[in-house]
Amino acid sequence: MVDRTIFWTRAGALGGIVFFFSLLVLIALMPLSHSVQEPAFDAPSSAVLAYARSETDLPFALSLIGVLGLFGFAVFAAVLTTRFRLEGSRWDVASTLVLLAAVTFMVLWLAELGLGLGQTFRRNDLDATGASVLSGLANGIFVVSWSAIAAFLGACGFAVLWTRTLPSWLGWSAVVIGIAMFLSGAAPLTSVWLLPYVMFFGWVLAASVVLLRTGLTHPS
């Protein structure tokens, strides 16, 4: 039983690390994926169409990096939920919210990825209206996902502070970043959301490192 717990702790840590580095890869590939700069959320439809048609022919497998990152996040969130429940009540509300918020975030991100792929499949047939609608839906889903991230961080922060399964600084930082992520939804057309969004990925990496060290300090 102990060996199994340690195995999943390490798996959750590696999942979070994969999630973090998938973002870095996607950021690195973004300049290579299009010959035109990505337009703002409220850019005119002509700019959105120009961006959609400027997509380069990168290997299709590269578009699955986001899916791989989400799979890693799923393992990470599941391990966190299990650890919180082992330390607290079986029906602990915080751990349940962690899982629900994580699932909501993953569903929203998959939907956004699906819209992006749909635009890629039909880019030769797109007109300004079609490109604008698909882009608007994808951006809208992306903005809504910030609330799911905020809920996930808030639930994690509460669970960490309640169960003491992880260092308290992870709990307090999760709460602060979660609040900032939620408030950024009030100004989606500004760049204010970028800082808490990046900090969310940094929090996942920090929590993953803590989980990994926890797993390595126990004999397997």
Number of helices: 7
Mean pLDDT: 85
Oligomer state equals: single chain
CA-based shape: elongated
- Strand tally: 0
Q: Helices and strands, in N-to-C order?
A: HHHHHHH
What is the distance, rounded to the nearest whole angstrom, between the alpha carbons of the first and last residues?
Answer: 11 Å
Characterize this entry briefly.
The protein contains 7 helices and no strands. By secondary structure, the chain is mostly helical. The protein has one domain.
Keywords summarizing the entry:
mainly alpha; 220 residues; 0% strand; single chain
What this model shows, in words?
By secondary structure, the protein is an all-alpha fold. The chain has one domain (2-216). The protein has seven helices and no strands. The protein has helices at 2-33, 45-53, 65-87, 93-121, 128-163, 168-184, 194-216. Helix 1 runs antiparallel to helix 3 and helix 1 (2-33) runs antiparallel to helix 7 (194-216). The longest helix has 36 residues, at 128-163. It is elongated and about 55 Å long. The chain starts with a helix and ends with a helix.
